[in-house]
Amino acid sequence: MKKRILLSMLVLLLMSTSAAAAHPGRTDSKGGHTCRTNCERWGLKYGEYHYHNGGSSSSSSGGSAASKSSAPKSSSSSASKPKESKPAYVKSGLKVFINGSALQFGSDPIIENNTNLVPLREIAERMGAQVSWNKSAGAIGVQRENYKMTLTLGSKTVYYNGKAETIAAPPRVINGVTYVPVQVFARGLGASLSYDASANALRITL
């Protein structure tokens, strides 16, 4: 009788130990189920399918698998070249004569905003004038006999023998060459100018 009682107690003890090691949830025909309660307590993830008999566990998808979406390939269009902007000036083709002799330019005269601009030094020195340059002030001095003029890069104000006047366009430097309006040679260096439109020719007479 005592043996039966001890055997019954041993069976109950084994069943209680097994129950303590498990966690709530019915198992399926394979001996496993999906964890829904106190999963972290048992070292499981919520929705993880596992076995109570020591089988390997697997994570449940818990729903339909996300379909793989492939991003559409973006067609790389060839970058169009930017339109080249036209320069602010163009070569004028102006011919210059000093006392009847044609001047051969090293730098071509240009036209900008309907104003003829010519290389200052080439014409001034051909007229017998001296050209000086004050780099710190950006000022250009030109003198011929008793005529003296002072110009400043980027400024329309010019001084003829110390008297300020306004010219059509400011002196500017292009490719290392200083360009000025043709009018400065008449007022600044005492020359007379005449323009032949049919021949596109400027005649300077001293």
UniProtKB/TrEMBL annotation:
Domain of life (superkingdom): Bacteria
Biased composition (Low complexity): 55-80
The entry's keywords: Signal
Domain Copper amine oxidase-like N-terminal: 98-202
Residue ranges of the region described as Disordered: 55-85
InterPro entries assigned: Cu_amine_oxidase-like_N, Mao_N_sf, YHYH_dom_bact
Extent of the signal sequence: 1-21
UniProt-recorded name of the protein: Copper amine oxidase
Keyword Kinase among UniProt keywords: no
Organism: Paenibacillus campinasensis
Protein's UniProt keywords contain Metal-binding: no
